[in-house]
Amino acid sequence: MALIDKVPGDLRLYIGGMFTLRRREALQQANITHVLSVLRSPLDQDLFSPFKKHMVVEVDDVEDENLLEHFPATNQFIKEGLDGGGGVLVHCAMGKSRSATVVIAYLMQEHNISPSEALSHLRQARSICEPNEGFMKQLELYGEMKTPEDVEQTPAYQRWVYQREIELSRACGQAPEADKIRFEDEHVPDQSSDFELRCRKCRRPLATSQYLLAHKSSLDDGDLNVETSPAASTKTCAHYFLDPLSWMRPELEQGKLEGRLECPKCHNNVGKYAWQGMQCSCGQWVLPGISLSKGRIDEARKSTVGIRRPPGAANVLGQNVGHSKQNL
């Protein structure tokens, strides 16, 4: 058995744990020039003196750790080492979760493969590789985002970070800070939608179909895990659950855990919100719970002639433009 585990293929890419760093002769034979340490522990710098470059990503092996934000930098470091003609070692404490996640991210970008395919490939070299559940979800999101060079500017990543903020606020029993709230209609590109939701009293457009959120109904067909589409949810549920929109800003930025949503034109009560979540009439818990009441809203199918812009603070001219929501 080889003393250090090489990722199958032509790449001189290796994976291991802390003990791998003590196999000096094997590392020298592999011509390791770059070492990437993915762990949050004091490191003996003498262990890294033989290598040309050393990079440290300080993360813990826990599911809520954000390793996704580091993928562009770790991919670039690995690429630099391989392009320079040397070998690259990626290690964590055990060579099982954190280092595997980073190597998988590189393989995904390099070979345009899925996380599961990259993991299967990696396990040919090191069978114990198993990213924790949170890291696997981050790899899946990274794949859905098409492994971008700039993760932080990607709308899907921004939505993911926003959701993490909401979950953290909920755990603390507080509303999210005003500057952490993501008003979706201010971040997505223009696109058409199937229908609008209008205030039943004054007919003011409040949302378009692309801002509706799907959720899993506990009543659909007796299946506890059936996910309903946004359109299906409008038929089976008493509320329209949706993303925060800019017309809600005055209310949502008050720092309250829950409250009412009023139409910005006629001030009629059209819905409610609860940052800690809300149970839908179908039985499913939705987090965060931002909803419009079906009894106070009309669903208006859109014509094929023009598309009206979803309501927002800047929509003072009522321009006929649409927005679309990016999927996670």
TrEMBL record:
SMART domains found in the cross-reference section: DSPc (SM00195)
Domain Tyrosine-protein phosphatase: 3-148
InterPro entries (UniProt xref): Dual-sp_phosphatase_cat-dom (IPR000340), DUSP12 (IPR016278), Prot-tyrosine_phosphatase-like (IPR029021), Tyr_Pase_AS (IPR016130), Tyr_Pase_dom (IPR000387), TYR_PHOSPHATASE_DUAL_dom (IPR020422)
Residues forming the catalytic site: 92
Source domain of life: Eukaryota
Residues of the Tyrosine specific protein phosphatases domain: 68-126
Gene Ontology molecular function, alphabetical: protein tyrosine phosphatase activity; protein tyrosine/serine/threonine phosphatase activity
Listed GO CC annotations: nucleus
A Pfam family: DSPc
Biased composition (Polar residues): 317-328
Residue span of region Disordered: 308-328
Keyword Hydrolase: yes
Keywords of the record: Hydrolase, Protein phosphatase
EC main group: hydrolase
EC number(s) per entry: 3.1.3.48
Sequence similarity: Belongs to the protein-tyrosine phosphatase family. Non-receptor class dual specificity subfamily.
Name this protein carries in UniProt: protein-tyrosine-phosphatase
